[in-house]
Specification:
It holds the Pfam family T5orf172. This protein folds into three domains: 27-95 and 105-136, no CATH class; 156-269, no CATH class; 276-405, no CATH class. The protein has a seven-stranded antiparallel sheet with strand order 1-6-5-4-3-7-2, with helices on both faces. Strands 10-8-9-13 form a four-stranded antiparallel sheet. Strands 11-12 form a two-stranded antiparallel ribbon. The relative contact order is 0.07. It is an alpha+beta fold. A hairpin with a 2-residue loop joins strand 3 (198-201) and strand 4 (204-217). It is built from 13 helices and 15 strands.
Length: 406
Amino acid sequence: MARRTLDDIFEDDDPYGLLDVKPGRSGGASADLEKDRAVLEQATAFFKENGRAPDRDAVDINEAILGRKLARVRDGAYAVDLLGDDASGMLVLQEEPAEPSQPSWRDEVPEDEAFDLSLDEIFDDEDFELDAELVKPSKVTPAAERNVSDHRAERRPCRDFKIFEPLFEDIHAAVQRGDRELVPFTKKGGTETVEGDFFIQKGQYAYVAEKGERTMKGGRSDHRLRVIYSNGTESDILMRSFEKGMYDDPTARRVEGRGFGPLDDRWQDDKAIVNGVVYVARSKSTQPDIQRDRLILHKIGVTSGDVQRRIADARNDPTFLFAPVEIVATFELVGMRRDRVEHILHAFFEGARANISVPDRFGRNVRPREWFYVRPDTVAKAVAAIKDGSIVSLEYDVETQSIRKR
C-alpha cells in the first residue's frame, strides 16, 4: 500500500469529529483572565471587610491601586466571563459621579508641560506592581492609633444646671436687646476659647464654665473644658475638639459684647467672674535629677474643680512629669479669673522656672513649663499679693529665693 500523505488523511471522513477543533483563547489570554479573577477576589475581600468597593481616589495607596485595577477589570474583555464569580456585585457597581473639581494651582500648568501619563494610566499599567512592604510606613504612628483618645467626651445631664440656668436667660435677653452680638466662628478670628465664653452651636447656647490646665495631646497643647449647654446637658470635651465642632457648623456663633473684642477693656470685664484654687504640687518621680530637687521643685497650677481629681491621672499627664504628685499647699480664689492668676504667677516666678525634659511613651522629649524652683510659702506670699494688688510693686529674687520690692 502506498504511504498516505497528510492531505489524504485530512480529506477522509472524520466520524468522531477529532479534527473539528474549535478556536480557543491563547495561553496569554487565559493568564489575563486569571489576573482579572485575582483582582476581583481582592476587591470582594475588601468589600466584605469594609462594606464598600475600593475607592480609586482613596488616600490609602493600596486601596487606590485596588480601586483602579477593579475599574480596569470592569471595562476589560473578561468582565462577562467573571460575572459568575462576582458574588458581591463588584463588576456591576456604578461609581458615583465625582463632584466638579475646584480650581487650583494645578489648573495653571501649561499643556506642553503636562505629564504624558495620568495617575490612572500609571496605576493601571500591568508593570506597575507595588510591593506592599515598600509603601508601608515604618516609623509613622497609624492614624487610628494617633487619634485614639484616652477619654471620650459625651454629653450627660448637668446636675447643677440650676446654677447656670440664669446665665443662659441673661445672655439670651442680652442678645435680644442688642447688648451682645453674634459673630461667626471662623479660624480667622484667632481668639482662643476662655472661661466665661458663650457660643451658639447647633441651635443651643454653650457656656464654657471651666478650662483645665494645658496638657499635651498628640504632640499639641490642649485644654479640657467643661461646657454647659442650654438644654441642661454638659460635656468635658477637649478645647480643640470643641473648636473643630464649631468650625464644622456653619451656623455656629461666638457671643461677644459690643466693642473691639479682646482689644477692648470692656470685653474682658463683660466675661463671667469665676472662682478656683491655686495648688502647689511636689513630684514623686523616680527620675534622679527630679528626686534630687524634689523639696524645692514644685508645680504651680490653678484649677476650677477638685484638686485631688485634677492630679488623679498625673502618671499619664506630661504636665505632671508622667509621675504621681502630692499636694503641699492650696489657696482659694474668689471672684478672680483663674487663667489670669496662673499667668501672673508663672510670669512672677519666671526666673525660677525649671528646664525639665521627660520622655513620653513614644520616646519624644516633653518640656513642661509649670514647674519652678520655689518654696510653697513663697507661692503663698505671691498669691496674697495678687489678691491685694501689691504684686505689681514686687519681684522675685532667685538668688535669695525671696520676694522683695522693685
